[in-house]
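Record type: monomer structure entry
Structure origin: computed from sequence
Chain ID: A
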Amino acid sequence: MLELADRHGLGPCAHYERAGSTPVPGTRVEIITMIKYSFLKILTGSDLSQRKLALMSLAAPRPGPTVWLTAAVHGDEVGGIVVIQEIFKKLKQEPLLKGELFAFPLMNPIGFESAMRSIPISKEDLNRSFPGNPSGSLAERIANTIFQAIIKTKPHLVLDLHNDWLNSIPYTPIDPHPGSKFAKTYEAVLKFARLAGLVIVDEEGESEQSRLELAKTLSGTLVNLGVPALSLELGEDSVVNEKNVQVGISAVWNILHSLGMVSATLPDGTHVPQALKGKVLRYSMQISSKSGLIRFLVNPGEIVKSGQPVARIYNVLGKPRETIKAKREAIVLGLTDSAVALPGGQVAAFGIIN
């Protein structure tokens, strides 16, 4: 395992932990595989303390696909950390059959400790800083360390785990089409999105600016370089929701199974409406035009019809100021965390069905 890690240039080993053994067909020999835990330096503080990125890896005795799991690029999105922990824990009992699995379980440790989405020192969004720059801003330097480590392994797939609003359902956003040059990459992304078993939403931007922003995310940068990458939004941020952790474990595990890396599938447990399974919806964000208090009339996961009221905004005296209505038939992906509406503020996110 140390030789494999060195070949990829991912740094020295911290320690190993036994992950299980795989029998060699036709013999009484078993090959023991080990989980490797190591760290990549990202920052030396003014007090000379070092900040590092934890890196987990596991190689099967047989060659096969290389897959990366990443989480907590936003410091308050903690559920993905637990999903990665549980995947590696499960692999101690059910050995990896072939290929390699790598993971950055906590990409934004500074934001995590401050319970903040951004990097609090620099106020930057790490997931709008890829592919990074070794001589750039703090976020760009961290992004560069992450990106270079991933690219060196020539991955077949990268799964980036996220969390959304407190009132939201798990879903799979896919990045805008990277163009004809990487049409096969986009087809692979769609295939893996369907295997995840969640509601699928195309994040094709409604403006050129939004497309440019999405191109600077980890998954967007990889897709635009021809590397299949997929984000999984696994319910609410800031807390560990065990039900959504299980959804994430099943999604990741079933994708690994499709690649022949594990032996069995898991039930998805997402209860995606039958009519929406495998269908690619269009992402849409509803905004308010008035100020006031938001009161919601629908719940995440609910399918709403065109023109159906989804929220009302009231002034301080309790008088209605605005009724937010669904523009099209859609599934409600999530509702804003804030009870306060401001002109142009986000109110709800939808997956447009038709």
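Annotation 1: The two ends are 49 Å apart (CA to CA).
Annotation 2: The domain at 281-352 is CATH 2.40.50.100 (OB fold (Dihydrolipoamide Acetyltransferase, E2P)).
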